Amino acid sequence: MSRTIFCTFLNQEAEGQDFQLYPGELGKRIYNEISKEAWSQWMSKQTMLINEKKLNMMNPDDRKLLEQEMVKFLFEGHDVHIEGYTPPSQ
């Protein structure tokens, strides 16, 4: 059974997550306010960030940086800026 939530990212009703994907209060907020579609958009941004900045998820500072970017992207309307990201030249 899918749940419908009001996705604050998409600003519309959308299919919610099946379960809480992130720990703590932030995870609850994501579960309640962020749709599957919005989360998948974040997942692709997250992959770019991890690759571009060579983040190590075992490193607490790297995880904190990623969390800050996630909050900015999902809740504050900021697109992820990949510093020094240049599309591959032809």
UniProtKB/TrEMBL annotation:
HAMAP family: Fe_traffic_YggX
UniProt lineage: Bacteria, Pseudomonadati, Pseudomonadota, Gammaproteobacteria, Enterobacterales
Family statement: Belongs to the Fe(2+)-trafficking protein family.
Stored PANTHER family: FE(2+)-TRAFFICKING PROTEIN-RELATED
Alphabetic keyword roster: Iron
Matching NCBIfam families: PRK05408.1 (NF003817)
UniProt name for this protein: Probable Fe(2+)-trafficking protein
GO biological process: cellular response to oxidative stress
Subunit description: Monomer.
